[in-house]
Each structure stands twice: as C-alpha cells, then as structure tokens.
Specification:
alpha/beta; 591 residues; 6-stranded parallel β-sheet
Length: 591
C-alpha cells in the first residue's frame, strides 16, 4: 500500500509493517496508526464509511485502497453524509462510521449529529484535523473541532498522540452503543494517520448485553398495573430500537391497556393496526395531559418523556395518575416527573419479565372488557377517518391535492413490507394517522428536528436493509435542506422512491402564527414563509442529480406511482402538488 510520510509525500509501506507484530500478552497487536484504525473498523463489523473528503482525510482515503470489505460512501455535503449514516445505523442495528472534513465539515454535520443524539443513533464520527506541526499558526481548515461537536454528541475528543488513537477508537464504539446510544466524535490530525511507527492495538472487549430490570421492582410494577381500573401505555422509541414490539404487545394485551406512541416517534413501537393502538400523543404537555386523563396508571416505556414542541403550562401527568417507567437508560427514570416504580434494564427482557409477572395468577381482571372497549373506539376512529378522507378526495380531485387525501393515497399504495422515511412536518402528522404499519423498522423519522434528514436517511436505510422497499415522504422545505443526497442515491443505484409534497411554503409556521392570533394572521401576510416565486421545480432538481422524476396530477396517478416502489430498480422522485395554507376567515384586513 501507500502511506504518507512526515513531509506529506506518499511512500510505500511493506506488508510486514501493515500486518504488525504478534499479539502481546494482553492481546494487543502493533500496527501503524492508519492500519490500527482499519483493523478496529473490521473487528467492529464496519463495512461502510460515509463521508465527504478533503485534504485532512487523504491518509484515510489512501489507506482504504487496501481495506477489503470497507466501502467509502460519498456524499456531496456533510449534512447528507450524517443523515445517510444515521439511516444505515438504524437499519443495521450497529454503529455507523462517518468521516467529516476539518472545522467546516464538522460545522456542516452538527445538525445531523444533533438529530442522531436525540434519536439515540450510534455513530462513530472521525473528523480530519490539520497537521499538528502548524496548528498553533491557525492554518486553513483548522479549529477546535471537539469543541464544535461537543454539544451535539455524547463525547468528543482530539487524538493528541498516535498511540492514543486505538484506545480512543475502541472507547468510541463502546460509548456510541451503550445506553443511551448516540454519536461519539474523534478529531484526528492528518499527520497522526501518516505516522509510520507502529502503535499497540488493544483487543476488542466482549461486553455482556444489558439484562432485565430488577425482579422485585418488576413485581411491584405488575401489582400496580393489575390493580389499575384504566391503565395506559406510552410506547417510546426504545421499544422499536431494542426489538421489543412483540413483548410490548404481550403486556398491552395482558392488561387490555390503550397504547399511545410517544410524541413525534421515530419508529414502529407498537403495531398501528392493533385495536389497542390509539395513535400518537400530541407534542405539548397540555395535549399529553388531555390524552392521559382518566387513566389511573401510566406505563411509560423507552422514551424521553415527553419532549414537547410548543410550550404549555400544564403538567403532562394528570392529577391522581401513577407512573411506572421503564428505560434502558437509568437517567430517564423520574427525570421530569416522579415515578412510583422505576425500572432500569434492557427493554425487551424487562417487558418479557413484566408480561410473565402480569399473567402469573391468570388473566388480569378487567382486561377483556377494556380490550373490547378499545377495539370499539378504534373502529370508530377508522370509520371517521374514511369519512374525512372521502370528503377531502371529493373536494380536490386534481392538483393541488388535499394534503390529507394525498398522504392517505400514499399509505394505501405502500407494500406491506415497505419502510417509510418521513420528513414532511405538517403533512407528516397527517401521514401518521393514515399509515397501517405493523412490521418493526417500518418507519424512520428523527425527533431531533434538524431539517435535511429525510433524503440521506432513506439512502442509508436502503443500504442497510436491501430486502425492503423504501419510500421517503418529504416536505418541499425539508427536501431543499438535504437535496444533495439524491446524487448518492443515483450513484449507488438505490431503489428508493422519494415523494415530495410541494405546497410552496413553510406551512407549519403559518399555522403556528394562526394559533397565536398573530398580526400576520390578521393581515393575511406571512413574511419570509413563502417558497415562491420562483417556484421550486423538483423534477428539474432530481434530474440534475441523475434521478428520474415525475409530477402527478391526481390521486390515482399518485397511488400508481407509489405502488410501483416494490418493483423499482433505481431511485425516482414523485413531485406531488398539494394545497397550502388557508387563511382564516376575516384575515387580510387590519381589523
């Protein structure tokens, strides 16, 4: 292979130098720093590095020539790169590796890192730092990379000495996947990777998986739940992340308890079609309180409760309600409100133990009645949805389509095994009510809220789960933040269908101003919230990046286009003109 020597020029490295010496008594081997890095990546099961390179990453890119089984996935901008890695890590269930370029690349990737931290996505982020020999002179591209990244990640370090690289890298993988999972950042000066002196590589530690929650506390939780008149369950994203959907279903069915998804959830944490499922909690404490009202025991599983969007003064837990909380991260228990019983442990075995405890003495009293009542309410909600959709379809049979009718058409056309990647803000909330997803992993979102996640996450999702159709449902504003990701989809030939709902505005912000009875509402004027003129042409934009595109005019055309995703052989984009914000009655005057 070729390595970089101290003056920055390439020089051949012998096979003996690459292989290193024999293992030491402590299980360590000796390798050059860059080969130590590649060795650790291989042992961690890393088969892809997502990045957008610059000068400071050249030693790594050059070394990848001899790294069998590691593919460099190129993105055109760091925001897209981090989103791709995020989607890939979720799809594969293991940490993904990101390579960022110096200070500017780190800054570009921070929004995606914030998303990953909020969504508890394990990432190991390697940023190329300038050469240490002139860092004190403030060279181009340099900066305090770790300080830039630190607020957005679990840990951030700069490698000061080549001998520290293997230890910090081992630590990064361990920290990234340990609950709460999240991104870990390493700044690596380019001359560290260019050093030729072998360094010791510690062996990979074998860490036993986290076990179930304490048995005595689990028995106490079961006692409270079986004694409840009207128990309710909040299904958090920890359920989906830890593969515990079936176990949560067993707990819910044992109790006959209504199940609500956490606000703006990231995944399928409970089957949407199950009669006990009652939808998603609102993203305000007032809305959460209203939804939980009348339930005497609340079981909260695997979520940062409750991550509101808009402030309301209400406490989310109704007076008199008792909380039982389970999370793999003990810091979540009682964080924002007291829990009568707090359970810390891996979600899947903890729910299995709770289910067994609930049914130890036979069927739970009242469970059958509660389940029948929940099924009746679910049937009523389904009938009301059908009536509402029919009215919206009739009101707008052609473009611009009704947003609700459009997302309903998308949902109905999806194959049963599809993965939906959603970043549509206003229409995304409607889409959640239309979806009938049952299979775990079938929904991808980010509670982080940083725009530009959707396209990249869809690319990474497809790379990490090749056997399932991937459909990204995107708002026009969100699409513009991550548009560069289309090029990566085309370059890799990925069968991803991108559905862009285009209303030509930031509707969520107009609707929020209306809820405040603002001056904008009174005047019918919303400065800075329109995306026209000029109108965004997503067909033209997609073709620029090599992605075929079409614009639909009717709901039937939309259904047909989305329905073809199961047989797609490459990426394509469907632009869907939808109706925008509707001014309130009386708006447009100064009165």
């Amino acid at each position: 292979m070729t390595a970089f020597v101290s003056d920055g020029s390439p020089e051949a490295t012998s096979a003996a130098e690459v292989a290193g010496g024999p293992p030491t008594a402590q299980g360590r081997v000796r390798r050059t720093p860059v080969q130590a890095l590649l060795h650790i990546l291989a042992e961690e099961g890393v088969d892809r590095v997502f990045g957008n390179p610059g000068t400071t990453e050249l030693p790594l890119l050059d070394a990848l020539n001899s790294a069998d089984g590691v593919e460099y996935v190129l993105g055109l901008q760091e925001g897209s790169v981090v989103a791709m890695a995020d989607g890939y890590a979720r799809a594969t269930g293991r940490p993904a590796v990101v390579s960022l370029h110096a200070a500017c690349g780190t800054a570009n990737g921070v929004s995606g890192l914030l998303n990953a931290r909020r969504s508890r996505t394990p990432l190991v982020v390697l940023a190329g730092q300038q050469d240490r020999r002139h860092l004190l002179q403030d060279p181009m591209l340099s900066g305090d990379l770790a300080a830039l990244a630190r607020p957005a990640v679990k840990e951030a370090h700069e490698v000061r000495h080549a001998a520290d690289l293997p230890l910090l890298l081992r630590r990064a993988f361990d920290t990234a996947r340990r609950a709460p999972a999240g991104p870990v950042f390493l700044s690596i000066p380019m001359d560290v990777l260019a050093e030729r002196t072998p360094v010791e590589v510690p062996a990979r530690s074998r860490v036993a998986p986290q076990g179930p929650a304490d048995a005595e506390a689990t028995a106490e939780a079961a006692r409270l739940l079986t004694g409840a008149l009207s128990p309710v369950i909040v299904a958090g994203d920890g359920v989906g992340r830890e593969g515990a959907v079936a176990e949560l279903v067993a707990v819910a069915e044992a109790l006959g308890a209504t199940v609500l998804h956490q606000p703006l959830h990231d995944g399928v944490d409970f089957p949407y079609t199950h009669p006990l499922h009652a939808g998603m909690l609102p993203a305000t404490h007032a809305g959460v309180r209203e939804a939980l009202e009348g339930h005497d025991v609340v079981l909260i599983v695997g979520t940062h409760a409750f991550t509101p969007h808009h402030y309301t003064p209400d406490h989310p837990i109704p007076d008199g309600s008792v909380v039982v909380q389970l999370d793999s991260d003990g810091a979540e228990i009682g964080r924002n409100f007291p829990a009568a019983v707090g359970l810390t442990g891996a979600v899947r075995p903890s729910l299995a133990a709770l289910s067994a405890e609930l049914t130890r003495g036979g069927p739970v009293e009242g469970a059958e009645r509660r389940a029948a009542e929940a099924a009746e309410r679910a049937a009523g909600r389904a009938a009301e949805w059908e009536r509402t959709v029919a009215a919206h379809r009739a009101d707008r049979p052609s473009a611009p389509l009704s947003p609700l009718a459009a997302v309903d058409a998308v949902a109905r056309a999806l194959p049963p095994d599809a993965v939906v990647v959603e970043e549509a803000i206003t229409s995304g909330v409607l889409l959640r009510g239309a979806l009938r997803l049952e299979r775990p992993g079938g929904y991808v979102h980010t509670v982080g809220g940083g725009l530009g996640h959707g396209i990249g996450a869809a690319v990474g999702t497809r790379l990490g789960g090749q056997d399932r159709p991937v459909v990204a449902v995107l708002g026009d504003g969100c699409t513009m933040f991550g548009l560069q990701g289309l090029w990566s989809a085309a370059r890799l030939g990925l069968a991803v269908t991108f559905v862009v709902l285009n209303n030509g505005e930031y509707r969520i912000l107009k609707d929020t101003l209306d809820s405040w009875s603002s001056e904008s509402t009174a005047r019918g004027s919303y400065p800075g919230l329109d995306l026209a003129p000029p109108h965004l042409d997503f067909q033209a934009a997609a073709r620029t990046f090599g992605v075929p595109a079409t614009r639909v005019k009717t709901l039937e055309e939309l259904s047909e286009a989305v329905g073809a995703c199961g047989s797609a052989v490459g990426p394509r984009l469907i632009e869907v003109p939808i109706a925008g914000h509707e001014p309130r009655a009386g708006a447009g005057t100064d009165s």
